[in-house]
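Researcher: Please translate sequence to structure tokens.
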Amino acid sequence: MLDLLAIYYAIIVVEEKSLSSAARILNIRQPTISQRIRHLEKSIGTTLFIRNAKGVHPTEAGKVFLDQCREAIQVITDAATRATQAGRGEQGSVRLGLQISLSEDFLRDMLSLYKSLHPLINLEFIESDQNKSIADLKHGKIDICFLTALAPQAELDAEEFWSVPAIIALPKSHSLAKRKSLNWEDLKNEHFLAREQSASAHIIVNNFKRRGWTPSIEFKNVKREDLLHLASIGLGFVITRMPEERERHPDLAYLSISNADLHVRFYGVWRSDNDNPAFHQFLELARSMAAERRRSCCP
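Model: Translation complete:
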């Protein structure tokens, strides 16, 4: 193995063009430097310096060797700096598993603020279904995933970060579309469309089960936007968030359910033993924004 300290001595000698000046800067005896450099030359099998009355100058081999050593030292120095920054959460990455759209106001605002606070952190996004996201979490492939339906998982922590009001989307041609609002009794015999393991599916199943009913529900592995298209052609009712899509789906009516706290809830899930400093800063920001949102909604 090469003598790294001898390499450092040699670089100082080149910069100072003098063994005596190098010894003064390094605060060591000149013979010590000369001896370490000679051992270095012997270990690599070539002469690095020409020594004469005019001073000490690198040979061509010495120039090539020491120039690359300077670059290597800079790489190591940069690596040490990045490691320190990563340990403080100033560099690194946060890997997010997504089952939801990045257009969600809370998520979009949080990502924007986090990036402005931590510009050197790389945000990586992996879109997948709930089962894949949970598996990726357990195997350490992502730091956090955002879901709209939650089941307890060993070794994982979870929190609700935000929620949005939900309503029923149904075709305007349906007789119930003329109503101002609905109740669950009105929906007892209706057919629903939902994505499997989605918040909408949980809302339907839980509310029907609570009343001793069995829902007519058809699972479609399509995006929420496509579910609304299917609803607009009469294939079923859809539980969705407030009618942000009204202009895109003029054939749909949007009705609330009377006396029902109907919300789509969004959860963050992560490994309890995650030691990524950048992720912990992300989590702290998410919690802070969620608390502020709750305060503003419920003063």
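Researcher: Any highlights?
Model: The longest helix spans residues 60-87.
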